Records
---
Amino acid sequence: MKHKKLIISLTAVLSVILFLATFVFVWYVCDYYPDFKEFREEFEIPGLDEGAVPQGMGTTNVKYEVKQEDGTSKSDNRQFFFVSAYMTDGSPSRIYVIGEKKSNEEASEYAGYIGYVTMKFKNAEGNYVDFYGHCGGVALNENTLWVASDRTVYVAKASEEYKSKSISREILEKAIISRNPVVNNGDGTTETKDFSISFTASFDANCNASFLYLYDDSRYTSTTYDRLYVGEFYRKGNYETDLSHRLITPNGYKNTAFMYEYNISTSSDNKYGLITLDDKGLDEDNKVPEIKKIFSLPEKIQGAAFSGREGYGTNDGMIVLSQSYGLSNSQLLCFDWKKVNESANGILYSKLSVDGSGAGKTPTDDKEEIKEGELCRSSFVYNNVYKTVGGQKIPYTDSALRVYYIDINNKDMFVNNYSVPSMSEGMCVITRPGANAAPKMRVYVLFESAGKKYNKFVRERLHNVYSFIPHVK
């Protein structure tokens, strides 16, 4: 009898060991990403060995001066990448700068890793202090830097020293300083040069802002405004969004997050770098950036990018969404942008009159989603923005805002999906000339899987950014 029990016990133990061994083998050895064959390895992600956890990525062209051997300076420019990251060692958050190598270029001090900047913000006491935010998204142009962290979008403009240049030039030059910030003054003393950027403004993102994307129309069309997109991340339990942001699409898919569209301001004096509300009755402090459109997103979105299809105009291109959480494969979801912009089928978000009246539906718990076509009045589009009517402060809302659905169940809209290694994060796009003068746009994808905090768990530790050209399946 004892012998039989021993055999049963050993069999159970061996079964558990075999199961675990099989799981480990399948998990770490038999991973399979056929879609990843279309991707190209790009630059190495900086800061990983120092505890950086990369989150967002933006790109812009920066003009700079190169010193010649004869002492003169020569103007040059190139595309630079900007990677935002929080630090696991408790140090301030960073933005890393990487210069793109030009074609047929042998070597340049501006190609490859440049350095990094830290950030400062003004606290409640009015003092500038180090910024330790999550830095979920980063975007910039010549005039403005935007960083998304939690429910806030932080804004930086060029400091007084760089007003005649640009904020992008300031970040580049201060990143160079970070490589060797301690300077010998020649009198036995040393000086540590500052390589931080100070936020000069911020605004409520009206969502759990986790990613940014700057859509630069000027690269390939002659439209009036460039646009900034601010999106949020949803995961049930630990990353909840406002109940009113959870909508059922026309095709029955349960979306759970919002992405807002803003127009870029062409005025260098605009403190947000974005077109603001200009409504009679709003105080100057209430003239916050004006939301132009609302897009309804699926869950677990870490980033967005816009890519034109070769042979098509930009407006007929794609929006690519980076969907990931934990150790599961990431999904890069591709949608026809024109179809998305045709998807507003009547829902008006927070349609309220000035006196606060108006029909609408308020979700009462997390089981109740708003169906397509219903009005939603559970929350206002703008948080803490008021106008004065009859001596009373009334919450401000814009009844013209419609919700556009990014709908996985719409087979005409959802045109492709790339299954790639885990932990895809922010994305950006580099435009190159294509066939018949059509723009050829590579989408660059950032991964956080090689961060030190994930060393023991991740199957594929991607130390580089990867790029691809999306196409219709």
---
Amino acid sequence: MLKKFYETFNIKSSEDQGRAEFLNRLFFFLDEASSFNDRYIYSNIFKGVCFELGLNPATFEQPQLTGPARYPDLQTLAKGDFHEAMKVTCALYHYFKRIGESVNCYEIDVAISHIIGLSTTDIGVRWVDGFFYPNNIPEIDYAVVDETLSWLSDFPAAKKDMQNAFSNFSSGKTEQVLSPCYMALENVIHMKTGLKSPLHENKLQEALFKNMLVSDSWRQFLVKFVQYANDFGRHGRNPDRHSVDNAEVESFLYLSCIMLRMIIRKIPN
């Protein structure tokens, strides 16, 4: 409603205002989410979220005159901060995922996407598969990033590596992007070829190309890509080469997505 009202009367909303609105709606949702499943009392949910965040739930206990201690609402963990609130939301999602409550995960997916859609301005993030990601990336983003996570559903280790890569990139940790991309690529190739050799070894590359029918140009490109990944991803930055800037890291991230999707599609199960 509010978004349509602003559009109708050409009212501009600042990012700060949009994020404040987002937080208010998110906190309302977190209160409701605390009672998603009657089989799990709230204390279990709170403890589960603390576990995901690496926090000690005992520090939040509120002793009662009678009965067990109580815990504060999830807003307490968010501290009224935009980024902390996103962390708490991700933690809640992954707690339910860890205990096998797929229905609750689906409800969170639907709710968070809806809440973001209600924003009167671009708040700079979007929600994909249990994580928040930044919006300030190319239009190719949806096809390359979102669909790649879906393609990696059968490769949980590689999917986790790529989620780490996206998270590190969005938080400005560019030096921690290439390595998880490299590990994701290596993991998928291991599973597709049945070999456990390091990615930079010719043995694994030969097995890859034996199962993957691509043109010579693509083979050469993939070999060069692996060489680059080995230089900067597996063993860290090569001191004899130039330093990797943000634009180069971003390009490598998206190229990794394309490579992963192509390998998965090209090599039969």
---
Amino acid sequence: MSVVIGVVIVVLNIISYVVIARVVISWLPIIGFQVSPDNPIIRIVFDITDPIIEPIRPYTTFGMLDLSPIIILFGIFFIIDFLSRM
């Protein structure tokens, strides 16, 4: 495996962790935690994930259920699996 593919896999892994963090952050108000949108960490997480999630969100929202993070994670894991077999 080349260095470039290894770097791409590491970047995709980091993006997947940030997407998971976004999902957890979105569920915090439901369990009673106050989440300030002005928090710099929350802003960074949303700034990283918005360009990835927003384009597919209109096609993956069913009522109150947004499946776009799951679709993104499946896509990332598929790409990682494909690249690691090269």
